[in-house]
């Protein structure tokens, strides 16, 4: 028996692949009597585009922007997706429990933290763990062999892993639908001895001002060997003209 809000395994699109993970958002039966579901796909790390230096939490999946309908007959079983460090879902094996902290945007090939969990309510019951699970981060399956052989990093919940050095990075290009002719757009770019990424905040030289302005990169591109960026510029409070209020 399946319900809206259940996370299910679905037959993979190709042989020898892991089952897809789908959250059911709708269930219905057509005129021919066949039962269908419509839902959101959750991607494993190997189903995303990412840098080989990126590390993932064990059993981590990502809420995608892909939705589709499939016959209920393609369901292979059930799983659970959410925060499982402090809570454990009743009646599920550990192998069928996943953690999701971020969304994956296929268009920009980027990850974004989920600020608010907006998914159908599940009927699964959760019970507190006696001892919270450690947060273990593991290397990408695309990482070089020497990185794969390193022991996994254990992160105390709520604390960042310190002194992580990305030794290998690559420029990450973007296909911009409405981009300017002759421009190559990037999600990540190495320029002027600095790694830049969409979403980064950078100092911008401001003529006539002592302090540099701060800007956030929303788009960046190369044209004729020069790099350009687009995004909002933030000013310091002392640079703004204030008006006294009586």
UniProtKB/TrEMBL annotation:
CDD domains: BAH_polybromo (cd04717)
UniProt xrefs under InterPro entries: BAH_dom (IPR001025), BAH_sf (IPR043151), Rsc/polybromo (IPR037382)
GO function terms (MF aspect): chromatin binding
GO BP annotation list: chromatin remodeling; transcription elongation by RNA polymerase II
Record-given protein name: BAH domain-containing protein
Organism lineage: Eukaryota, Metazoa, Chordata, Craniata, Vertebrata
Membrane-crossing segments per the record: none
Keyword vocabulary terms for this entry: Chromatin regulator, Nucleus, Repeat, Transcription, Transcription regulation
Annotated localization: Nucleus
GO cellular component: RSC-type complex; SWI/SNF complex
Species for this entry: Hucho hucho (huchen)
Name of one Pfam family that matches: BAH
Residue ranges of every copy of the BAH domain listed in the record: 1-115
């Amino acid at each position: 028996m399946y319900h809206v809000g259940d996370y299910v395994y679905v037959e993979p699109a190709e042989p020898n692949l892991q089952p897809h993970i789908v959250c059911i958002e709708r269930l219905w039966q057509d005129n021919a009597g066949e039962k269908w579901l419509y839902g959101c796909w959750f991607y494993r790390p190997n189903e995303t585009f990412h840098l080989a230096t990126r590390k993932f939490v064990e059993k981590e999946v990502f809420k995608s922007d892909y939705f589709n309908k499939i016959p209920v007959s393609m369901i292979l079983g059930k799983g659970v997706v959410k925060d499982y460090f402090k809570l454990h879902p009743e009646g599920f094996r550990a192998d069928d429990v996943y953690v999701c902290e971020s969304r994956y945007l296929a268009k920009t090939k980027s990850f974004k933290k989920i600020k608010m969990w907006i998914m159908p309510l599940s009927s699964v019951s959760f019970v507190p763990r006696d001892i919270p699970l450690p947060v273990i981060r593991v290397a990408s399956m695309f990482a070089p062999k020497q990185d794969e052989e390193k022991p996994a990093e254990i992160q105390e919940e709520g604390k960042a892993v310190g002194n992580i050095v990305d030794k290998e990075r690559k420029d990450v290009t973007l296909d911009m639908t409405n981009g300017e002719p002759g421009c190559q757009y990037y999600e990540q770019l190495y320029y002027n001895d600095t790694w830049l990424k969409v979403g980064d905040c950078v100092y911008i030289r401001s003529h006539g001002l002592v302090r540099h302005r701060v800007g956030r990169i929303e788009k960046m591109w190369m044209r004729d060997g020069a790099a350009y960026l687009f995004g909002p510029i933030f000013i310091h409070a002392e640079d703004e003209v204030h008006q006294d209020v009586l």
